[in-house]
Amino acid sequence: MCHHHKQEAGSVTILVAGLIAIAGVLFLALGQLGGAAVEKASAQVAADAAALAGAKDGQSAAQTMAGINGAGITSFIAESLADGSTEVQVSVNLAGVTASARARYVPPPPPPPPPTIADTTVPESSIPDTTAP
Predict the structure, then answer these.
(1) Is pTM, for the whole model, over 0.85?
(2) In 10 A of CB 109, how many CB atoms?
(3) What crossing angle do the helices spanning 2-57 and 59-68 adopt, rounded to 10°?
(4) Rounded to whole angstroms, how far apart are CA atoms 94 and 130?
(5) Which helix (DSSP H) or strand (DSSP E) does residue 102 occupy?
(6) Are 87 and 103 a contacting pair, CB within 8 Å?
(7) Mean pLDDT per segment of 10 residues, for the chain of length 133 residues?
(8) Is 56:105 a contact under the CB 8 Å cutoff?
(9) What is the pLDDT of residue 126?
(10) In whole angstroms, what is the distance from residue 101 CA to residue 77 CA?
(11) CA distances (Å), 41 to each of 49, 71, 129, in order?
């Protein structure tokens, strides 16, 4: 009977070692997936930032912003629209991961003209009569 328990103990050791190996492989796979997700998100951030900068200030601003985020621009397309706005599409590459983004810059409207003297005159009816006793 003692001999039978030693065989079972050896089987449990092998089973536990196998489960630990499987768990290790799963953790490595999850780590790879997590790393890929982080790389994709980082590339998308770089593309978004480059598109926003490029829409307002042109391709050199887009290249600078992509570089700040560790990426390089692979494509930059800008279009000036009839309403005075600019739309861009940017693609970037960051550590072998490609991401794209679009952005549109609409310039602010011009400020209103300053008031004229005619706009600041006070109607006579609102001036108090100081000649009456």
Answers:
(1) no
(2) 7
(3) 160
(4) 78
(5) strand 97-105
(6) yes
(7) 56 79 81 79 95 96 96 96 95 96 94 77 64 64
(8) yes
(9) 62
(10) 11
(11) 12, 12, 73
